[in-house]
Design a protein that fits this description.
alpha+beta; Nucleoside Triphosphate Pyrophosphohydrolase; 3 domains; six-stranded mixed sheet; 18% helix; 39% strand; binds zinc ion
């Protein structure tokens, strides 16, 4: 007999969930809840609540008529509906499926790769190995006395303000990345840079590394291509802030609660 397994089933970024009396969950069953398509690999992605977790991708979305309690929802949106640990594991599943999709052929030889472990593939010709690439980005909460620097990036969806953030460049330390991004985006210098915490960001394969810092010197000069607004705000005068799911929000909430 097969074990009860949690099945993370994606069609593109849409995650399959089932509705129970207490809300939505990842389907749990012995057999896959939807037939595994030919050419789709079932990936082991660890355990949750004592159950093995597996992930695979569909080539077409499921139709709601077959099973009305089933729904497919974008991973970001699922944060508002799934228990946190199920959403969190869904992020890992999405990263693994994205890696699987993008490493089907060796980039040097063009031949199909072989899977050698849960998170490893190998080219049978040149023996090169491929593991999931994670893109690190830093984010920093900058305070000046009782105020916090909030910026509005041109590529933000919605109307909220966030914190200064940016991708790590090759050959750079995380600290250098923060100082560079703050200077490039706002023209100010910061001091007392301290590590705060990190968060996987599976959109599609990032990790956010959060810092806190204090304003040191300089006038705000926004980088026009990336930011459309930015200023120091008091606690009782904050603009709209990011959603609960982000590390930006955790950093801001931590400051609000100080
Ligand atoms: Zn190769």
């Amino acid at each position: 007999m097969n074990e009860i397994t949690l099945w993370f089933v994606f069609y593109k970024d849409q995650l399959l969930m089932v509705q129970h009396n207490d809300g939505y969950h990842i389907p749990a069953s012995e057999e896959p809840p939807v037939k595994v398509p030919i050419g789709s690999t079932v990936h082991s992605i660890g355990n949750l609540k004592g159950m093995p977790c597996k992930a695979y991708a569909l080539h077409t979305p499921i139709s709601g008529e077959e099973a009305p309690q089933r729904v497919m929802m974008g991973l970001r949106a699922s944060y508002d509906h799934l228990p946190f640990e199920e959403y969190y594991k869904g992020g890992k599943a999405f990263e693994i499926l994205n890696w699987d999709q993008n490493t089907r052929y060796c980039p040097s030889c063009g031949v199909p790769t072989h899977q050698i472990s849960d998170i490893g593939k190998k080219c049978p010709e040149c023996r090169q190995e491929f593991y999931p690439h994670i893109s690190p980005a830093t984010i920093v909460r900058i305070t000046r006395g009782d105020s916090i620097l909030m910026v509005r990036a041109r590529n933000f969806r919605g109307t909220y303000y966030g914190l200064v953030a940016g991708f790590l460049e090759a050959g750079e330390t995380l600290e250098e990345c923060v100082h560079r991004e703050v200077m490039e985006e706002t023209g100010i210098r910061i001091k007392n840079l301290k590590y705060f915490g990190s968060q996987p960001w599976p959109y599609p394969s990032g990790v956010m590394i959060g810092f806190t810092a204090e304003y040191e010197s300089g006038d705000i000069k926004l980088q026009d291509e990336e930011l459309c607004a930015g200023a120091f705000f008091d606690r009782d005068n904050l603009p709209e802030i990011p959603r609960k799911m982000s590390l930006a929000r955790t950093l801001i909430d931590d400051w609000i609660n100080q």
